[in-house]
Specification:
By secondary structure, the protein is α/β, with parallel strands linked by helices. 50% of the residues lie in helices and 16% in strands. It binds BIS(adenosine)-5'-pentaphosphate, magnesium ion and zinc ion (ZN).
């Protein structure tokens, strides 16, 4: 099963992709995570991407298409993937169509997480991540069970993304509406789009996505 999670910054793509990946045995392919890993490793691509990401702009299409194309060829992706944060432009969507066709894969669903803009900023500025295992949290909506200790790996260090400030979020939102929002129309016309109410609590959104996936499976 191959899926796309579509939605603005802070909609809950990463949160939901992690749970669905574990539940359905899929691999989460987050271009944002891959680019942040490249930046942390100090590669040339990572260095260039970091400067763009810190401004809230999009990394060039050819860079992310190449990253996805190489990653999906790895054996663990055979059983199915969840694209999280990709595609983000019409050019990326059309490159993905070709890529999946060439690799004889089929897109089963495109799940659009719908969240009001005012909520997005609140979600993003409160987000933090375990420095050791990458588990995601929120100051108000998803606190670790024991304060200061990661639920998953018991790590005690946490990080915040450099692009998670109110100013950059506004830029990311503008870029989303200009470049990525048209993809809902693109996938609606292809018959793949399934909208889910992303305003509900994390578990409830997960249940709604689960119902969609059980129907398309
Ligand atoms: P990326 O990492 O993809 O960031 P994004 O799209 O801006 O999305 P986020 O990761 O911020 O949000 P999310 O939807 O994953 O929300 P989350 O689950 O964490 O991309 C970063 C940058 O990389 C881009 O700006 C661009 O520069 C570059 N890039 C990446 N892909 C690219 C591409 N394809 N092409 C070009 N450039 C690319 O949730 C947010 C918070 O809310 C968390 O704290 C969570 O706990 C909380 N939360 C989640 N769901 C709920 C809920 N239902 N109720 C309450 N709180 C919730
Ligand atoms: Mg994310
Ligand atoms: Zn952890």
């Amino acid at each position: 099963m191959d899926l796309i999670l579509l939605g603005p910054p802070g909609a809950g793509k990463g949160t939901q992709a992690t749970t669905i990946a574990a539940k359905y045995g899929l691999i989460q392919l987050s271009t944002g995570e891959m680019l942040r890993a490249a930046a942390a490793a100090g590669t040339e691509v990572g260095r260039q991407a970091k400067a763009i990401m810190d401004k809230g702009e999009l990394v060039p299409d050819e860079v992310v298409i190449r990253i996805i194309s190489e990653r999906i060829d790895q054996p663990d992706c055979k059983g199915g993937v969840i694209f999280d944060g990709f595609p983000r432009t019409l050019a990326q969507a059309s490159a993905l169509d070709k890529l999946l066709r060439d690799k004889k894969r089929k897109l089963d669903a495109v799940i659009e997480l719908r969240v009001d803009d005012t909520k997005l900023v609140e979600r993003i500025v409160g987000r933090f991540t375990c420095a050791k295992c990458g588990a995601g949290y929120h100051d108000r909506f998803k606190r670790p069970k024991v304060r200061g200790v990661c639920d998953v790996c018991q790590g005690t260090e946490f990080t915040r993304r450099p692009d998670d400030n109110a100013e950059t979020v506004t830029r990311r939102l503008m870029v989303y509406y200009r470049e990525t929002a048209p993809l809902t129309g693109y996938y609606y016309c292809k018959g793949n789009l399934r909208a889910v109410d992303g305003m509900a609590a994390i578990e409830q959104v997960g249940q709604e996505i689960g119902a969609v996936l059980d129907a398309v499976k």
